[in-house]
Amino acid sequence: MKYFSAFILLAVISYTGSQIIKQELHDDSFKAETNDLRIQGGEKTTIKKFPYMISVHTTNGLRGAAVIINKYWGLTAGIIFYRYMNGTLTFRAGSTQQNRGKILKVDKYFDHPKYSGGWTDDLTIFKFTKPIKISNTMKPISIASSLPKNGTMVTVSGWGDEEWMKENSGTTQLKAVKVKYVHSKTCQPLYQDDIDDGNFCSLTPGRSPCAFDWGAPVMHQQKLIGIYVGGEDCGSITKPPLYLDLTRYRQWILDTIRKNSKSYEIDEINIE
Description:
Order of helices and strands: HEEEEHEEEEEEHEEEEHH
Strand order of the largest sheet: 6-5-2-3-4-8-7
Number of domains: 2
Largest sheet: 7 strands, antiparallel
Strand content: 25-35%
CATH superfamily of the largest domain: Trypsin-like serine proteases
Keywords: Disulfide bond, Hydrolase, Protease, Serine protease, Signal
Number of strands: 14
Helix content: 10-25%
Protein name: Peptidase S1 domain-containing protein
GO molecular function, one term: serine-type endopeptidase activity
Structural class: alpha+beta
CATH architecture of the largest domain: Beta Barrel
GO biological process, one term: proteolysis
Signal peptide: 1-18
CATH class of the largest domain: Mainly Beta
Mean pLDDT: 83
């Protein structure tokens, strides 16, 4: 009997999640958008349009992405450094091609204290050994103080796979895709306890960041609102892509930088 009850509970959860998605998609602000181009559904772009992008590599290839937030500091998803020693990852910036560009060495990094390998609190900030030289292909982006209206189109950029964990489906050239921002209340029933209010998702069938886009930036009005942290599929509306809401972590980022910077470095912090 208890097994039957558990089955009924799972069915109700699944039904509830699907009903929420259907309701969102029937709302005028959530009309499904498709794209024949299959990041997934993205289009090729250049580093000059996204000069704050960093590609992160292991000895086996692309690991994910990171973001320059000032000339001394960058940030990425916690999963990037998870179970990796500093010095075993390679950071490249200033190039449209993920396997080219200037190598940036990392002096130290700081995981969010609550991060444990899941999708919540999935954030690491890191300090470069030397300040980067600002140029039209390498410059910081500021972190937004608030999120856009639910259903707003936002932009994600990265070098990851076009299909979930499909070998050789990635790209060496930077791609960008527009997706619809969806607040955490809609996403949470689909992932249950695996996410919290610090996450949000996107509902744009066939368009999304994908495997090895971990840490890829989400932008709105030229400001950083989040980073891609994962999910169970790419471009899905039943298990949509998940992001970390960086507007909720601004204070932790600022406090950590202040505690680990020289006075003249603090003066150049820009997360407003």
